[in-house]
Every structure is written in structure tokens, then in C-alpha cells.
Fold each of these.
Amino acid sequence: MSQTLINAMADLEESVLVKEVKNLQAQGVPALEIIQKLQEGMNIVGKRYEEKEYYLSELIMSAEIFKEAAALIGGDLAGGGAPSHGTMVMGTIYGDIHDIGKNIVTTVMSCNGFKVVDLGVDVPTAKYLEAIKEHKPQVVGISCLLTTAFDGMKECISAIEAAGLRDGVKILIGGGPCDQTTANYVGADAYCKTAQDSVEYSKKLLGIS
């Protein structure tokens, strides 16, 4: 597959990206492969933001462009059939309104046959508890792009455990400032650097090859 899609995502060239997505779909390229190329482009966006080449406005724009691309691919996700694997509850912890990473994870997980319950951003602990009770997920994902929200993740995970909802549920965290040390601090089961890490960990957890 050409670099066109990756470059279009990284350079925020919406019209080029939409045209290339449609072109790849017409060629029969699997939805997951297209999403993975989009993710590579988003990774470049993230690096440019870290290096102060891009600013918040570019981050917001990249998220909107990614959403548009994902909507185009939507009908092809998971082969158009029902989710064949487990359920994931996903959200960005309260105190943080970033949704780029969360959106990538939900899209890629859906692409891989998981049912994803997207709670949105700035999600309070109570909303996580309600979702776990209602949907009985095997995996809970918490996205965090602000170090100031680390304590919020810790409090949320402690509350899940205190409510007796931790049994049979694995909690994954991810986001720019997170690492394995963060996962240890907040009490998560694993730190996932990329959306694909979330997929691979979840499949391993559920014994899916």
C-alpha cells in the first residue's frame, strides 16, 4: 500500500485522504489495513504535536479527519457482521477531554471483532461503574493524555475494585504521558502504547489467536 494515506493523515489533507480511502476500498483493501495506515498517520501527528510543530488546533483537526475516514470505512468494520469476540468499555477519564487516542482504539478494536461501548470523554467514575454493570465487559480501557488526570484513573480503578466489579475484568490504560510505571501506579492490568497493543492484549486475555 502506498504512503499516500499515511501522508494525507499526517499532513491533515482531508480531500486527499477521503479520495485515497475510497480508492483503497474500491481495490478491496481490508478495512483493518486502511485503519492501520490511518493510525500510522495519527502517530506522526502525535509526534509533530510533541515537537511543537503542531498545536491544539491541528490535533482537533486530525481527530475530525480521522472520524470522517472511520465513518467511510464503518460499513466494512468486522466484516459487516456482529462482533465475534468480547466486549470493551472505553473512555477518556474525567478531567481530560482528549478523544483522538480513544477514537483510534475503539475503531481498531471494532475492526477486530470486539463490541466497544464508547463512554466518550471526561468520563466520571460512576459512569464506568454503570457501564461495567450493564455491559459486563471483559476489558475496560481508560485513555489519558494529561498527567493531572493520573489520580483520576487511580481513583476510578480503586472504585471498580471496591464495587466488586474487578473480577473477570482487565483494565488497560493508554495515552501519550502513560507508561508501565503509570499502569503500576493507578492499578491497571496493562499499559498499551498503541491501539494494536490493546487488540493483542485483549485477544491474548480471551484466548483468541
Note: Confidence is low (pLDDT under 50) at residues 78-82.
Amino acid sequence: MKIDEKIKKSEVLIQWMDQRIDGLEISSDDRTRISAGCLDISLEHQKAIVLLIANKLIGSAFSLARLLFEAYIRGLWLGRCATEQEIEKYQQDKLRKTFETLVQEIEQLEGFNEGVLSKAKAANWDSLNSYTHSGYLQIVRRNKTDTIEPNYDDEEIIDMLGFANAIGMLSALQIALMAGKEKLAMELLEKSKTELGKP
């Protein structure tokens, strides 16, 4: 698949998700609102990655990938794992848990105990950090033989779009569950199986 085709497919997917989750009603308690806020910013990062890649701002798109993943994990953890004391600490920006710990606690939950999130973290964390913090993996992709400019492999860009879409769909799925829309959650799950299996 070519980059332009993947961008178009990503845009169609985003519109499809927006049509289904925009306007859903959720509880107004603190836990739900902050969890949903994290998931919403994850969806915004997904859109931004697609938009940046469509506008050939590839380095900036890649730098958002870690933030996208973190927002999803944090939203999931706050909604499903955090104690009331941890919610209070989070609200004061005083929660001191490592990202690794958040993933481990999520994977104690039924439906997450196959280790998919920790495997995704293990496979991608070093590169995500490098892209976000202007590390070598990001900077080496700014070099061509005679110039300093973006030099990302097409397959890497397509993979990044796939990663963004996967996390976006997982975020939308959690929002559907928060809204008590199990049928929609199943629809999102089925869509993810068909959409994300193909780069």
C-alpha cells in the first residue's frame, strides 16, 4: 500500500469513529471525566499524526507516537485501575507511578492479561522515546547524502499510521464502554480486526 492510500484510509477510519463516538454521554464523576479526557487526547494525537503525515511533517508526526500511547494507557489505567487516592494524586499532578507499572496493573484485568500492551511497549518504547526526545532514531531520519531534510522510509510511515490507528481505535473502544454502549464497543472491536490487520 502507498502512503497516500494509507492516509486516505486513516482519514476514513477517523471519520467513521467520530460518527460513532461523538456525543456519547458518560458519567460526570472525576474518574470517568479524567479517564475520558486522556482517551480524547489520544484520539486527537491520532488525528494529528495523520494530518502531519499528510502534510509531509513526518518528524513531528513520529514525535507524537509516544504521547498517543501514553494518553491511551493513562486513560485506561485511570478509568479501570486507579484507587480513589491515586485519582486525587493525579488531579494534583502528584501521582508517581512509572509507565511500566501502569501497564502491569492494566494487564491484571480480565481482557488485558495476555500481555499485549507490555509486548507493544517492549517492542516500541525505545524508538518512541527517541522520536519524541529528538534522539538518534529521529535525527538520523533527517539526513540525506547531501542535505538535512526528512528522510523516512515509506514502510516506516505506513507502520506509524497503522500504530496511530490501532491506538485510536482502542481509545474509541474504551469511550464506548464508558458510555455503556457495548454493541458499539463490539462494532469497534470487529472493525479493528478488519482494519488493523492490513497495513
Note: Residues 3-195 form one domain.
Amino acid sequence: MVAKRIIPCLDVHEGETVKGVNFVNLRVMGDPVEMGRMYSQQGADELVYLDISATNQGRGTFLSLVRKVADTLNIPFTVGGGISTADDASRLLDSGADKISLNSAALKDPTLIEKVAARYGSQFVVVAIDAKLLENSWRVMSNGGRNSAHRELFEWANEAESRGAGEILFTSMDNDGTKKGFAVDTLAKLCNQLSIPVIASGGAGKMEHFSELFLNSGADAALAASVFHEGTLPISSLKKHLSSCGVPVRIV
């Protein structure tokens, strides 16, 4: 049985890991390379680095960071944020990233998924989907969850797969930040419809949320940030809990 993956997510601004609310009132959490090293030692299976810098200078800093991460860590990592063209993706993948994450740009131009997949392969392409439940329908949001993309979650996820996405990263905006658990029922439906791996995001607060997710949804991986950054949920302890519940995980 394939091991389930635990994936810390690090927001990066001008070369430093930060934490804030809607990218406002950012607090520096630490060096992203050293934090990545720590998570790798704890047993993280992969990492996600999101570039939230708003300047061209920040983009250059992020490329430099990607090269440092690639030289330092021995676990796969995905990078996202501000990727709007196939050339943007190429620069990050050529700098050492294992995968790239597309979100708003893919909604604006779905052929971007095809272009990156054709150049590098589907296994390099993660399509991130942020959605919220509105009038009994999961509506996809863009631009950091600020704007409606006028797409429905399941329809867009299936299209992304058909265009060459190798994985779907689904964040429930209704669950995100609540620490009350993942959107398990919706994830189960999503996993049932897709043939590619699904990464769950939004709602992690305690170990039981992860075991509930993996035992009841079919999700291949779980992504979280604050519970790891704040040290309230060590990855090594989480994996011991998951293993005791019968969830297959990689133990270091």
C-alpha cells in the first residue's frame, strides 16, 4: 500500500518564511531552508514553498532560494506563487524544484497546464484549487481566495486532470484556519472522481484530523502550515499516531 504523505507548507516573502493573515501583518517565522531541513529530519515527505513576494526583486530572491533548497534537502518539494507562464515554470523547475503549483493563472488560461505538462511531464504539475461552499455548490476562487473564478470544484478538477495535471491540491476555504478538521466528505467525492493523487489542505488542528482524513477520504497527502510552524504538532509524533491507526506512512 502506498504511504500517505505529510506536507508542510511554507509561505516565503523576500527569502524568509512568514506567517500572516491574507499576506498582511507578516511575521518572520525563520529561514526557509533551515525550516525545510528541520521538517525533513522530523519525517516530512515533501514540502511546498509558496512565493508571496510582490516585487521582481522578490522573484529573483525566490529563484535563489529554490536553488539552495534543491542543494540542501533530500525530499521532494513543490513551488508555487506568481507562476503565470510556461517560462515561469521552467525557471523554477530548472532551478531544482521537483514540481510546480498552478492556481489563478491556470484558471485564466487552462492551456498553461498542457504547456507545462507537455514540456516536463504531468508528474511535475500540481493544480491548486481554493474553493468555498456557496448555496450547496463548491465554487472555485482565485487570487488568494478574493475573487470568484466562476467555476465549480469538481468540474474544474476533472478538466485540470484531463489537461495534464499530475496532482490536485484542494483547499477548503470554509475549513481553512478553523483547526476543526478537513472537508472529508468533499475530499472523498473528489478522490472518487479523479484518477490522480489528491492533496488535502485546510482545517488541520490535531492528530485525529489527519487520521480521519486518511481513513475516510482516499486523499493521498495532507498539507498544513501553522500546526507545524508553531510546533504544536510534531511530524514525527503525527506519523506515529497515523501508523497506530493503520494508516501507512513513512517512518524515519
Note: Residues 158 and 193 are 8 Å apart (CA to CA).
Amino acid sequence: MTSPTIKVQRLLPAAQLPRYAHTGAFGDLAADLFAAEALTLAPAGHPGSTGPVRTGLALELPSTHGALVEDRSGLAIRGLTTLAGVIDPGYRGELKVILANLSSEPIAISPGHRIAQLRIVERIQATFEETDTLEEAPRGAAGFGSTGQ
């Protein structure tokens, strides 16, 4: 499988193109995304604890691929997490990362800070077929916590 080429338009001077910290055979699954503006998120439970952060970039994804915006584990452990981040191949607007501060302290973000990861995914369009029954499986209807602690 060949790697897709993603065209990136810089919309703000402080914008940085996504980049992989580690490449090669055992490289990163996702590329780092960087803030292009300063923003302070209030502590959890206060107004302003969630908000969009501009990356200053617009992407041209091929019709065969989309992207997911995901947490950086080092930020998530400190209470900074991303919310809903699906980028469809036809979207050409600015990529903004919705961040939520779950910690009890304000979190300041500066231009150039790594704020999230961008995972490129192959787009597969499924067909959904209604049925009255589903085939049995070992897990069945067991949900959250079904595999134990």
C-alpha cells in the first residue's frame, strides 16, 4: 500500500505542518498537530474549560482517506483531552482541535505547542442492512468493563 500525499495549506503564519516525531518501520501511528494561537482553558467545571484551538491549517485529503484527531497521551494524563475529531475527505476548512481541560487548574496553550495527533485513515463506506436478529458471539451484549478490571 502506498502512502497518501496530503496537501496542506498554511492559513496563519504561526502554523506548523503536521509531522511524525518517529518515522521508519516502528514509527508513530499519528502525526503531531500544533497550536497556531495562544489560549488558556479554564479549570474543569468553569466556563471556558472547553474550546477550539486553531492549527492555522487546511488539508486536502484524497477521496480515499480521512483523518481522526486524537489525544496526546502526555497531555491526557495531565487532564487535557480532545473531543470529537473526524475530518472527512471533502472538508477544506481550517482544522481546529476541540480541547477540554479536565484538571482543576487553568492550562495555557502557546503557538507551537503540540496539542493533538492526526491519524490518517482509509475511508471505507459500509452498507447498513436492517435485520431482526444478530449472530451469536462469545462477548454477546457485554459492554464497558466486561473483561474485568
Note: The longest helix spans residues 73-76.
